[in-house]
């Protein structure tokens, strides 16, 4: 099993922490001129997304995590599992609600997502930063209002609900920022 | 061939900062010239290494064909050679030089850094503490820097910020305190009392030191004496000090140990500890022991990180901002 010593710690390094795959966010070298050195790290649990702080005695080793980020195309949802495919190899993986989480509301068939694989299995799904989705439900806006002031809720084809300007109508396609859940423009 | 999109050839310090560096070094030399302290140079490559198990020397050897392939060690500080000069009757001396410490890399550390080290014959470590503050305020005049200083014992600083007496507390006490402060620590056991002290010092106490003024922390646990004299008592205390500004360690000084036998015992204890930790053995400096046996005048010495002093003058947050080429670009 591959291991890393504290002197190899750097941000982005994938390691095992308390049985879960984790990614080092920040590593600070701490040492009194005379005395014990430490690595003080901020580290993200890749399953829960939670960031914790931990201090390692210098020279300690920690197990490496076999974690890779792969671009995959979202295929379909069969009611229980979401299916993704690597476009070059046609290799497919499936994942359930607990891994997809809130990303589900942005997943449109054939969009390319960033899938994080741990030992070959998906542990997190990042949808594209922006997606273009059709409005399937929204109140008819006030005619002639193009200012965009105020706004109204609109339900999109993937199930997400975003705030859109009053002029956006059912059937329109809109561009949305998936990180903030904000409407960007009509597409 | 890749096109020149790579900017790593460039210095990380601005030209302004490099000018300030030159200015501060010139002021240091003036400071000592006014006081009649002699500037000296000693070898950077030595046949003896640093035995301190927490310091990792670089080793070098000649690549010349047929050359003696014996290792030489890059100094982690010029301390041993400077004490040999003191024993030879040099009087008070100072040196500005590069020192090298393997594996020390980070926001406040570069494996190769610039040390200002000086020794004052006849000074007590308290007098030297005062001179460190005087030098720092003198060379930083006109730059943003503290104008005042406080002196606090190691014990009082721990009492103030951890409620623990660092000389009485056990590893279990330190561990319990770390837990109560929600410090999540890996790799320290109940046999690591000094490492626990260092953990609480660096993580909890240090951030409070040197706020708006210099803090001189002094009288360390005897187990952390390094090369300082230990004063008998209950508990015995190492006559050692550190100077801090804004939570950052700036200098480390000693009432210098002059007893050759005690020094030999410390070297041997260090080497046993290195063996226990599986660290490579390094030869200790027999020249230093011979010099101490000849007689070291009563003196105090201090090592000050010039890069960190420059960080203070530049309001820099990392050492890379004040050196031309940090480790990653050297």
TrEMBL record, chain A:
Tell me if Magnesium is a UniProt keyword of this record.
no
| GO terms of biological process kind | peptide biosynthetic process
Mention any Pfam family matching this sequence.
Answer: Elong-fact-P_C
Ranges of residues in domain Elongation factor P C-terminal: 131-186
MF terms (GO), sorted A to Z: translation elongation factor activity
Q: What does this protein do?
A: Involved in peptide bond synthesis. Stimulates efficient translation and peptide-bond synthesis on native or reconstituted 70S ribosomes in vitro. Probably functions indirectly by altering the affinity of the ribosome for aminoacyl-tRNA, thus increasing their reactivity as acceptors for peptidyl transferase.
Family listed:
Belongs to the elongation factor P family.
Quote the protein name from its UniProt record. Elongation factor P
Q: Which organism is it from?
A: Candidatus Muproteobacteria bacterium RBG_16_60_9
Source gene? efp
TrEMBL record, chain B:
**Where, if anywhere, are coiled coils annotated?**
250-277
Q: Which Gene Ontology BP annotations are present?
A: lysyl-tRNA aminoacylation
User: Where in this chain does the record put each Aminoacyl-transfer RNA synthetases class-II family profile domain?
Assistant: 24-326
Q: Could you tell me the superkingdom of the organism this chain comes from?
A: Bacteria
Print the keywords alphabetically.
ATP-binding, Coiled coil, Ligase, Nucleotide-binding
Name of one Pfam family that matches = tRNA-synt_2
Checking InterPro entries in the record gives: Aa-tRNA-synt_II, aa-tRNA-synth_II, aa-tRNA-synth_II/BPL/LPL, EpmA, Lys-tRNA-synth_II_C
**What is the annotated quaternary arrangement, including any partners?**
Homodimer.
Q: What is the name of this protein?
A: EF-P lysine aminoacylase GenX
Which source organism?
Candidatus Muproteobacteria bacterium RBG_16_60_9
């Amino acid at each position: 099993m591959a291991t890393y010593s504290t002197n190899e710690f750097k941000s982005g390094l994938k390691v095992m922490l308390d049985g879960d795959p984790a990614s080092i966010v920040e590593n600070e070298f701490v040492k009194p001129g005379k005395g014990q050195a430490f690595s003080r790290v901020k580290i993200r649990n890749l399953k829960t997304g939670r960031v914790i702080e931990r201090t390692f005695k210098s020279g300690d080793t920690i197990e490496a995590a076999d974690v890779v980020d792969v671009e995959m195309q979202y295929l379909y949802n069969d009611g229980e599992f979401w299916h993704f495919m690597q476009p070059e190899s046609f290799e497919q993986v499936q994942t359930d609600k607990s891994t997809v989480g809130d990303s589900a509301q942005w997943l449109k068939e054939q969009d390319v997502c960033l899938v994080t694989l741990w030992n070959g299995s998906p542990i997190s799904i990042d949808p594209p930063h922006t997606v273009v989705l059709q409005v399937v439900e929204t109140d008819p806006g006030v005619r002639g209002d193009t200012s965009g002031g105020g706004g109204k809720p609109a339900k999109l084809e993937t199930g997400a609900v975003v705030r859109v300007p009053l002029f956006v109508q059912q059937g329109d396609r809109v561009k949305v920022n998936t990180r903030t859940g904000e409407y960007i423009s009509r597409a | 061939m890749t096109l020149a999109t790579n900017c790593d050839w460039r210095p990380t310090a601005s030209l302004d900062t490099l000018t300030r560096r030159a200015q501060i070094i010139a002021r240091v030399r003036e400071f000592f010239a006014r006081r009649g302290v002699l500037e000296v140079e000693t070898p950077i490559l030595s046949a003896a290494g640093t035995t301190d198990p927490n310091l990792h020397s670089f080793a070098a050897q000649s690549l010349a064909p047929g050359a003696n392939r014996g290792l030489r060690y890059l100094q982690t500080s010029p301390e041993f050679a400077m004490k040999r000069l003191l024993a030879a009757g040099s009087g008070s001396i100072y040196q500005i030089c590069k020192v090298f410490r393997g594996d020390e890399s980070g926001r406040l550390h570069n494996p190769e850094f610039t040390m200002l080290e000086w020794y004052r014959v006849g000074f007590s470590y308290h007098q030297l503490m005062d001179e460190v503050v005087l030098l720092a305020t003198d060379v930083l005049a006109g730059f943003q820097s503290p104008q005042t200083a406080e002196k606090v014992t190691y014990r009082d600083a721990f009492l103030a910020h951890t409620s623990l007496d660092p000389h009485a507390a056990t590893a279990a006490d330190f561990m319990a305190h770390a837990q109560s402060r929600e410090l999540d620590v890996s790799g320290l056991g109940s046999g690591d009392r000094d490492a626990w002290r260092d953990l609480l010092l660096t993580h909890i106490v240090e951030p409070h030191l040197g706020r708006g003024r210099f803090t001189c922390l002094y009288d360390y646990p005897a187990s952390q004496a390094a090369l300082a004299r230990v004063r008998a008592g209950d508990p015995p205390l190492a006559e050692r000090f550190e100077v801090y500004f804004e939570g950052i360690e700036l200098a480390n000084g000693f009432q210098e140990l002059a007893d050759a036998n005690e020094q030999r015992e410390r070297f041997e204890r260090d080497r046993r500890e290195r063996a226990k930790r599986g660290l490579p053995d390094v030869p200790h400096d027999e020249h230093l022991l011979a010099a101490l046996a000849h007689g070291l005048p009563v003196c105090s010495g201090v090592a000050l990180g010039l890069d960190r002093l420059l960080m203070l003058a530049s309001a820099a947050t990392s050492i890379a901002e004040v050196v031309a080429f940090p480790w990653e670009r050297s």
